[in-house]
Amino acid sequence: MANSASGMAVDDECKLRFMELKAKRSHRFIVFKIEEKIQRVVVETVGESQQSYDDFSASLPADECRYAVYDFDFTTDENIRSKMLYASSKDRFRRELDGVQVELQATDPSEMSLDIVKERAF
């Protein structure tokens, strides 16, 4: 089905490869291109998980347009990746613990003092 704004359909393989990158992290990057003859966005290149950013850059043509997704793996001094994992898993975990009365989210020890816990509980 064509996109009403541009007339370009998105090939199912584009969605499949993106889900593999997102869920399984089986690819480092994906490069997509528009095939004008068939009026579709298609997968042009799939980078293996061990490939680098330089490999990704080299896969892009110098004088043509492309769409691309790169799985940039990073951590910071604050370990943002861990925080994001906990934040995205919280709702499901909480639903599994039927009966929890009070929820307190703390990003550092000052946000979980006994006074704050008591205030939330009453």
Q: Terminal Cα separation, in Å?
A: 55 Å
Low-pLDDT sequence parts: none
Number of helices: 4
Main β-sheet: number of strands, strand sense, barrel status? 4 strands, mixed
Under the CATH scheme, the architecture of the domain at 9-70 is: 3-Layer(aba) Sandwich
Tell me, rounded to a whole number, the average pLDDT. 85
The number of E-state strands comes to 4
Strand content: 15-25%
If you consult CATH, what is the topology of the domain at 9-70? Answer: Severin
| Structural class assignment | alpha+beta
CATH class of the domain at 9-70: Alpha Beta
Order of helices and strands: EHEEHEHH
Estimate the helix proportion, in percent. 25-40%
Q: Which superfamily, in CATH terms, is the homologous superfamily of the domain at 9-70?
A: Severin
Spatially, the strands of the biggest sheet line up as 1-3-2-4
Which term fits the overall shape?
elongated
Radius of gyration from CA coordinates: 22 Å
Q: Would you mind describing this structure in some detail?
A:
37% of the residues lie in helices and 20% in strands. With 122 residues, the chain is of the alpha+beta class. It has a four-stranded mixed β-sheet with strand order 1-3-2-4. Residues 7-122 form the ADF-H domain. It comes from Salix udensis. Keywords: Actin-binding.
